[in-house]
Amino acid sequence: MSGFACIEPVTYEYTNEDGRRDVAVFFMGRLDDVLARGTVSAADGTKKMRVVQVRLLADEVRDDLEHVEPYGFTSEPLDDEQPEAFAAFFGGDRSHGIVFCIADRRYRLTKLKAGEVALYDDQGQKVHLTRDGIVIHTDKQLEATVGGTLTATVSGAATLKAASVKIDAPTVEITGALKVANLITGTGGMAISGGNGAAVTGDIKVWGGGMSQRTALVSKLTNTLACNQAVAKPEELKTKVSMELILNGKTADISDFEADELAQAVLISLFSWRKSAADDGPVAPYRQGWWGDTFAQETGDRIGSRLWLLQRQKMLPQMLRRAEAYAKEALKWLTEDAVVARIEVTAERSDIDQLTLTVVCFKPDDTQALAARFQNVWS
Questions:
Q1: Fewer Cβ neighbours under 10 Å: the N or C end of the chain?
Q2: Are the CB atoms for 40 and 81 separated by under 8 Å?
Protein backbone atom coordinates (compact mmCIF):
# COMPACT_ATOMS: atom_id res chain seq x y z
CA MET A 1 0.00 0.00 0.00
CA SER A 2 1.43 3.30 -1.08
CA GLY A 3 2.74 5.52 1.68
CA PHE A 4 3.40 2.81 4.25
CA ALA A 5 6.62 0.91 5.00
CA CYS A 6 6.92 -2.49 3.36
CA ILE A 7 7.74 -5.04 6.05
CA GLU A 8 8.23 -8.68 5.08
CA PRO A 9 6.79 -11.21 7.49
CA VAL A 10 8.96 -14.15 8.69
CA THR A 11 7.33 -17.28 10.13
CA TYR A 12 8.82 -19.43 12.92
CA GLU A 13 7.55 -22.81 14.14
CA TYR A 14 8.20 -24.34 17.57
CA THR A 15 6.78 -27.11 19.74
CA ASN A 16 5.11 -26.49 23.12
CA GLU A 17 5.78 -28.62 26.20
CA ASP A 18 2.62 -30.59 25.49
CA GLY A 19 3.89 -31.47 22.06
CA ARG A 20 1.66 -29.09 20.12
CA ARG A 21 3.19 -26.98 17.43
CA ASP A 22 2.62 -23.16 17.46
CA VAL A 23 3.29 -20.67 14.75
CA ALA A 24 4.61 -17.20 15.59
CA VAL A 25 4.66 -14.55 12.92
CA PHE A 26 7.03 -11.67 13.46
CA PHE A 27 6.97 -8.62 11.29
CA MET A 28 10.62 -8.04 10.96
CA GLY A 29 11.57 -4.49 10.11
CA ARG A 30 12.47 -1.29 11.76
CA LEU A 31 9.19 -0.23 13.36
CA ASP A 32 11.06 2.27 15.45
CA ASP A 33 11.75 4.15 12.22
CA VAL A 34 8.01 4.56 11.57
CA LEU A 35 6.83 5.87 14.97
CA ALA A 36 8.85 7.98 17.33
CA ARG A 37 8.48 10.01 20.50
CA GLY A 38 10.47 13.11 21.46
CA THR A 39 10.35 16.63 22.84
CA VAL A 40 9.63 19.95 21.11
CA SER A 41 12.63 22.27 21.04
CA ALA A 42 11.33 24.86 18.52
CA ALA A 43 8.07 25.76 16.77
CA ASP A 44 7.02 28.08 13.95
CA GLY A 45 3.29 28.76 13.72
CA THR A 46 3.53 31.50 11.13
CA LYS A 47 3.27 29.08 8.23
CA LYS A 48 0.04 27.60 6.92
CA MET A 49 1.08 24.30 8.50
CA ARG A 50 3.03 24.71 11.70
CA VAL A 51 6.49 23.17 11.69
CA VAL A 52 8.34 22.03 14.77
CA GLN A 53 11.80 20.89 15.69
CA VAL A 54 11.75 17.64 17.64
CA ARG A 55 14.53 15.98 19.60
CA LEU A 56 13.93 12.25 19.17
CA LEU A 57 17.05 10.64 20.55
CA ALA A 58 19.91 12.23 22.37
CA ASP A 59 21.73 12.87 19.13
CA GLU A 60 18.81 12.98 16.71
CA VAL A 61 17.06 16.26 16.01
CA ARG A 62 14.52 16.58 13.22
CA ASP A 63 13.74 20.00 11.79
CA ASP A 64 10.68 21.23 9.93
CA LEU A 65 8.35 18.42 10.87
CA GLU A 66 4.83 19.48 9.98
CA HIS A 67 2.45 19.50 12.93
CA VAL A 68 -0.90 18.20 11.71
CA GLU A 69 -3.95 19.53 13.61
CA PRO A 70 -7.68 18.82 13.26
CA TYR A 71 -9.68 21.37 11.30
CA GLY A 72 -10.91 24.21 13.48
CA PHE A 73 -8.46 23.62 16.33
CA THR A 74 -4.97 25.01 16.76
CA SER A 75 -2.46 25.70 19.53
CA GLU A 76 1.07 27.00 19.82
CA PRO A 77 3.17 24.66 21.96
CA LEU A 78 5.94 25.83 24.24
CA ASP A 79 9.42 25.19 22.86
CA ASP A 80 11.40 24.54 26.04
CA GLU A 81 11.93 20.82 25.29
CA GLN A 82 9.25 19.90 27.80
CA PRO A 83 6.23 19.32 25.54
CA GLU A 84 6.15 15.78 24.18
CA ALA A 85 5.75 15.15 20.46
CA PHE A 86 4.56 11.97 18.75
CA ALA A 87 5.75 11.61 15.17
CA ALA A 88 5.24 9.28 12.24
CA PHE A 89 7.67 8.76 9.34
CA PHE A 90 6.29 7.48 6.06
CA GLY A 91 8.04 4.38 4.80
CA GLY A 92 10.35 4.59 7.77
CA ASP A 93 12.08 7.51 6.09
CA ARG A 94 13.25 9.79 8.91
CA SER A 95 13.58 12.69 6.49
CA HIS A 96 9.84 12.59 5.69
CA GLY A 97 7.68 12.77 8.80
CA ILE A 98 4.85 14.55 10.56
CA VAL A 99 3.95 15.27 14.17
CA PHE A 100 0.39 14.18 14.86
CA CYS A 101 0.16 15.00 18.56
CA ILE A 102 1.87 17.33 21.03
CA ALA A 103 1.14 17.02 24.75
CA ASP A 104 2.35 18.88 27.82
CA ARG A 105 1.76 16.97 31.03
CA ARG A 106 2.75 19.96 33.15
CA TYR A 107 -0.50 21.80 32.43
CA ARG A 108 -3.02 19.11 31.61
CA LEU A 109 -6.18 19.40 33.68
CA THR A 110 -6.70 16.45 35.94
CA LYS A 111 -9.61 15.07 37.92
CA LEU A 112 -12.09 15.54 35.10
CA LYS A 113 -15.18 13.43 35.31
CA ALA A 114 -16.03 10.87 32.64
CA GLY A 115 -17.38 12.64 29.57
CA GLU A 116 -16.03 16.10 30.44
CA VAL A 117 -14.05 18.20 27.96
CA ALA A 118 -11.70 21.13 28.55
CA LEU A 119 -9.51 23.68 26.77
CA TYR A 120 -6.58 25.04 28.78
CA ASP A 121 -3.17 26.69 28.60
CA ASP A 122 -0.05 27.12 30.70
CA GLN A 123 -1.42 30.29 32.40
CA GLY A 124 -4.29 28.55 34.15
CA GLN A 125 -6.93 29.79 31.70
CA LYS A 126 -9.55 27.23 30.79
CA VAL A 127 -12.91 26.50 29.25
CA HIS A 128 -14.28 23.49 31.08
CA LEU A 129 -17.38 21.65 29.88
CA THR A 130 -18.40 20.08 33.16
CA ARG A 131 -21.29 17.72 33.84
CA ASP A 132 -23.14 20.69 35.42
CA GLY A 133 -22.39 23.38 32.86
CA ILE A 134 -19.57 25.38 31.28
CA VAL A 135 -16.89 27.07 33.37
CA ILE A 136 -14.71 29.80 31.83
CA HIS A 137 -11.78 31.04 33.87
CA THR A 138 -9.15 33.67 33.14
CA ASP A 139 -7.16 36.15 35.22
CA LYS A 140 -6.70 38.29 32.13
CA GLN A 141 -9.00 40.05 29.69
CA LEU A 142 -11.98 38.44 27.99
CA GLU A 143 -12.96 40.07 24.70
CA ALA A 144 -15.80 39.30 22.32
CA THR A 145 -16.35 41.02 18.97
CA VAL A 146 -19.72 40.48 17.32
CA GLY A 147 -20.42 41.93 13.90
CA GLY A 148 -24.11 41.08 13.97
CA THR A 149 -26.67 40.60 16.71
CA LEU A 150 -25.82 39.15 20.11
CA THR A 151 -28.63 37.24 21.80
CA ALA A 152 -28.38 35.33 25.06
CA THR A 153 -31.36 33.39 26.36
CA VAL A 154 -31.10 32.48 30.04
CA SER A 155 -33.84 30.41 31.63
CA GLY A 156 -32.57 31.11 35.15
CA ALA A 157 -31.07 34.18 36.82
CA ALA A 158 -28.04 35.99 35.38
CA THR A 159 -25.45 37.58 37.70
CA LEU A 160 -22.59 39.89 36.73
CA LYS A 161 -20.06 40.80 39.42
CA ALA A 162 -17.55 43.50 38.51
CA ALA A 163 -15.76 46.52 39.95
CA SER A 164 -17.63 48.63 37.39
CA VAL A 165 -19.68 48.11 34.23
CA LYS A 166 -19.74 50.46 31.24
CA ILE A 167 -22.29 50.15 28.44
CA ASP A 168 -21.25 52.24 25.43
CA ALA A 169 -24.43 52.45 23.38
CA PRO A 170 -26.74 55.21 22.09
CA THR A 171 -29.67 53.67 23.95
CA VAL A 172 -30.25 50.90 26.48
CA GLU A 173 -33.71 49.34 26.51
CA ILE A 174 -35.07 47.32 29.43
CA THR A 175 -38.45 45.73 28.80
CA GLY A 176 -39.09 44.77 32.41
CA ALA A 177 -38.79 46.54 35.77
CA LEU A 178 -35.46 48.09 36.82
CA LYS A 179 -34.45 47.65 40.45
CA VAL A 180 -31.37 49.46 41.74
CA ALA A 181 -30.06 48.91 45.25
CA ASN A 182 -27.89 52.03 45.37
CA LEU A 183 -27.57 55.54 44.00
CA ILE A 184 -28.58 56.44 40.42
CA THR A 185 -26.57 59.29 38.92
CA GLY A 186 -26.78 60.85 35.48
CA THR A 187 -25.74 63.94 33.54
CA GLY A 188 -28.20 63.91 30.65
CA GLY A 189 -31.43 64.39 32.57
CA MET A 190 -34.35 62.02 33.06
CA ALA A 191 -37.62 61.63 31.18
CA ILE A 192 -40.53 59.46 32.35
CA SER A 193 -43.70 58.83 30.39
CA GLY A 194 -46.56 56.36 30.53
CA GLY A 195 -47.47 53.99 33.29
CA ASN A 196 -48.17 55.56 36.67
CA GLY A 197 -45.46 58.17 36.38
CA ALA A 198 -42.77 58.27 39.05
CA ALA A 199 -43.29 57.17 42.64
CA VAL A 200 -40.68 57.86 45.32
CA THR A 201 -40.62 56.44 48.84
CA GLY A 202 -38.24 58.46 50.98
CA ASP A 203 -36.27 61.58 50.10
CA ILE A 204 -35.84 62.85 46.56
CA LYS A 205 -32.90 65.16 45.95
CA VAL A 206 -32.65 67.21 42.77
CA TRP A 207 -29.75 69.62 42.21
CA GLY A 208 -31.43 72.34 40.18
CA GLY A 209 -31.92 72.74 36.45
CA GLY A 210 -35.09 73.05 34.40
CA MET A 211 -38.36 71.84 35.87
CA SER A 212 -36.96 70.46 39.08
CA GLN A 213 -37.62 70.03 42.75
CA ARG A 214 -36.52 73.64 43.12
CA THR A 215 -39.29 74.79 40.77
CA ALA A 216 -41.87 72.72 42.61
CA LEU A 217 -40.83 74.12 45.96
CA VAL A 218 -40.79 77.69 44.71
CA SER A 219 -44.27 77.07 43.30
CA LYS A 220 -45.25 75.77 46.70
CA LEU A 221 -44.23 79.09 48.18
CA THR A 222 -45.76 81.34 45.53
CA ASN A 223 -49.03 79.39 45.47
CA THR A 224 -49.55 80.23 49.14
CA LEU A 225 -49.25 83.97 48.63
CA ALA A 226 -52.86 84.51 47.62
CA CYS A 227 -54.05 82.91 50.87
CA ASN A 228 -51.69 84.61 53.31
CA GLN A 229 -51.29 88.29 54.04
CA ALA A 230 -48.25 87.49 56.15
CA VAL A 231 -46.44 86.00 53.15
CA ALA A 232 -45.04 88.76 50.99
CA LYS A 233 -45.68 88.55 47.27
CA PRO A 234 -42.59 89.45 45.20
CA GLU A 235 -44.36 92.32 43.46
CA GLU A 236 -45.54 93.68 46.82
CA LEU A 237 -41.95 93.89 48.00
CA LYS A 238 -41.41 96.67 45.45
CA THR A 239 -43.57 99.01 47.53
CA LYS A 240 -43.29 97.44 50.97
CA VAL A 241 -39.50 97.11 51.07
CA SER A 242 -37.03 99.90 50.45
CA MET A 243 -33.93 97.73 50.78
CA GLU A 244 -31.22 97.61 48.14
CA LEU A 245 -30.82 94.31 46.33
CA ILE A 246 -27.58 92.90 44.92
CA LEU A 247 -27.70 89.59 43.03
CA ASN A 248 -24.49 87.82 42.05
CA GLY A 249 -22.46 91.00 42.41
CA LYS A 250 -24.80 93.26 40.43
CA THR A 251 -27.41 95.73 41.57
CA ALA A 252 -30.81 94.14 41.05
CA ASP A 253 -34.50 94.67 41.53
CA ILE A 254 -37.41 92.37 42.31
CA SER A 255 -37.82 91.35 38.66
CA ASP A 256 -34.26 89.96 38.64
CA PHE A 257 -35.12 87.76 41.62
CA GLU A 258 -38.36 86.67 39.99
CA ALA A 259 -36.45 85.58 36.88
CA ASP A 260 -34.17 83.26 38.88
CA GLU A 261 -35.88 80.35 40.62
CA LEU A 262 -33.30 80.02 43.36
CA ALA A 263 -33.15 83.78 43.99
CA GLN A 264 -36.95 83.90 44.17
CA ALA A 265 -36.97 81.03 46.66
CA VAL A 266 -34.42 82.82 48.87
CA LEU A 267 -36.34 86.11 48.68
CA ILE A 268 -39.70 84.59 49.61
CA SER A 269 -38.21 82.38 52.32
CA LEU A 270 -36.50 85.33 54.05
CA PHE A 271 -39.19 87.97 53.80
CA SER A 272 -42.37 85.98 54.34
CA TRP A 273 -43.49 86.12 57.95
CA ARG A 274 -43.03 82.76 59.61
CA LYS A 275 -45.23 81.85 62.55
CA SER A 276 -43.46 82.74 65.79
CA ALA A 277 -42.46 80.13 68.35
CA ALA A 278 -44.31 79.81 71.60
CA ASP A 279 -41.50 81.48 73.57
CA ASP A 280 -40.86 84.32 71.08
CA GLY A 281 -43.20 86.73 72.89
CA PRO A 282 -46.15 87.45 70.56
CA VAL A 283 -49.38 85.74 71.43
CA ALA A 284 -52.38 84.86 69.30
CA PRO A 285 -53.61 86.37 67.11
CA TYR A 286 -50.30 88.19 66.53
CA ARG A 287 -47.98 85.23 65.91
CA GLN A 288 -48.28 85.65 62.14
CA GLY A 289 -47.51 82.74 59.75
CA TRP A 290 -49.56 80.98 57.11
CA TRP A 291 -52.62 78.98 58.11
CA GLY A 292 -51.64 76.26 55.61
CA ASP A 293 -48.62 75.33 57.75
CA THR A 294 -51.08 73.74 60.16
CA PHE A 295 -51.67 71.01 57.58
CA ALA A 296 -48.06 70.61 56.45
CA GLN A 297 -47.14 67.16 55.18
CA GLU A 298 -44.13 67.18 57.50
CA THR A 299 -44.77 68.05 61.13
CA GLY A 300 -43.25 71.42 62.03
CA ASP A 301 -42.75 72.49 58.42
CA ARG A 302 -43.03 76.28 58.23
CA ILE A 303 -42.81 78.83 55.44
CA GLY A 304 -40.93 82.13 55.84
CA SER A 305 -38.64 83.54 58.51
CA ARG A 306 -38.91 85.08 61.96
CA LEU A 307 -36.86 88.11 60.96
CA TRP A 308 -39.98 90.24 61.50
CA LEU A 309 -39.55 89.72 65.24
CA LEU A 310 -36.34 91.80 65.16
CA GLN A 311 -37.72 94.98 63.58
CA ARG A 312 -37.96 96.79 66.92
CA GLN A 313 -34.79 95.34 68.38
CA LYS A 314 -31.66 97.40 69.00
CA MET A 315 -28.83 96.79 66.53
CA LEU A 316 -26.64 94.88 68.99
CA PRO A 317 -24.26 91.95 68.26
CA GLN A 318 -26.66 89.45 69.81
CA MET A 319 -29.43 90.73 67.55
CA LEU A 320 -27.20 90.20 64.50
CA ARG A 321 -26.57 86.62 65.59
CA ARG A 322 -30.33 86.08 65.98
CA ALA A 323 -30.86 87.51 62.49
CA GLU A 324 -28.36 85.01 61.08
CA ALA A 325 -30.06 82.17 62.97
CA TYR A 326 -33.53 83.18 61.73
CA ALA A 327 -32.27 83.47 58.14
CA LYS A 328 -30.61 80.04 58.28
CA GLU A 329 -33.78 78.58 59.73
CA ALA A 330 -35.83 80.04 56.86
CA LEU A 331 -33.44 78.74 54.20
CA LYS A 332 -32.79 75.34 55.75
CA TRP A 333 -35.32 73.64 53.47
CA LEU A 334 -33.11 74.45 50.46
CA THR A 335 -30.43 72.06 51.75
CA GLU A 336 -32.87 69.52 53.16
CA ASP A 337 -34.54 69.19 49.77
CA ALA A 338 -31.15 69.25 48.02
CA VAL A 339 -31.87 72.42 46.06
CA VAL A 340 -28.37 73.51 47.12
CA ALA A 341 -25.58 71.77 49.00
CA ARG A 342 -24.90 74.38 51.68
CA ILE A 343 -25.72 77.98 52.58
CA GLU A 344 -23.70 80.71 54.27
CA VAL A 345 -25.53 83.61 55.95
CA THR A 346 -23.96 86.79 57.32
CA ALA A 347 -25.80 89.57 59.18
CA GLU A 348 -24.09 92.91 59.70
CA ARG A 349 -24.88 96.46 60.69
CA SER A 350 -24.36 98.68 57.66
CA ASP A 351 -25.26 101.91 59.44
CA ILE A 352 -26.26 102.96 62.89
CA ASP A 353 -29.66 101.31 62.59
CA GLN A 354 -29.51 99.39 59.29
CA LEU A 355 -29.35 95.60 58.91
CA THR A 356 -27.72 93.95 55.90
CA LEU A 357 -28.03 90.23 55.11
CA THR A 358 -25.72 88.33 52.76
CA VAL A 359 -26.72 84.84 51.53
CA VAL A 360 -24.39 82.61 49.49
CA CYS A 361 -25.61 79.23 48.19
CA PHE A 362 -23.25 76.49 47.01
CA LYS A 363 -23.61 73.53 44.65
CA PRO A 364 -22.46 69.98 45.54
CA ASP A 365 -19.07 70.64 43.91
CA ASP A 366 -18.73 73.69 46.21
CA THR A 367 -19.03 76.18 43.39
CA GLN A 368 -21.28 79.19 43.97
CA ALA A 369 -24.89 78.82 42.90
CA LEU A 370 -26.10 82.22 44.09
CA ALA A 371 -24.93 85.27 46.05
CA ALA A 372 -27.59 87.69 47.26
CA ARG A 373 -27.11 90.76 49.40
CA PHE A 374 -30.02 92.58 51.03
CA GLN A 375 -28.92 96.03 52.23
CA ASN A 376 -31.05 98.09 54.60
CA VAL A 377 -33.43 95.24 55.40
CA TRP A 378 -34.99 97.77 57.72
CA SER A 379 -33.97 100.92 59.43
A1: N
A2: yes
Q: How many CB atoms lie within 10 A of CB 323?
A: 26
pTM: 0.49
Strands of the chain, DSSP E: 9-15, 21-27, 35-44, 51-57, 60-67, 84-89, 97-103, 117-120, 126-129, 134-137, 244-247, 250-252, 342-349, 355-362, 368-375
In tens, the pLDDT along 344-354 reads 999 999 877 88
Alpha helices for 128-260 (secondary structure H): 213-222, 234-240, 254-259
Cβ burial of 73 (10 Å; 0-12, 13-18, 19+) is exposed
- The pair phi, psi for residue 376, each rounded to 5°, is 60, 55
CB atoms inside a 10 Å sphere around CB 350: 16
Residue 305 per-residue DSSP state: B
Instruction: Say which residues have a Cβ less than 8 Å from residue 7's Cβ, sequence separation at least 6.
Output: 27, 28, 29, 31
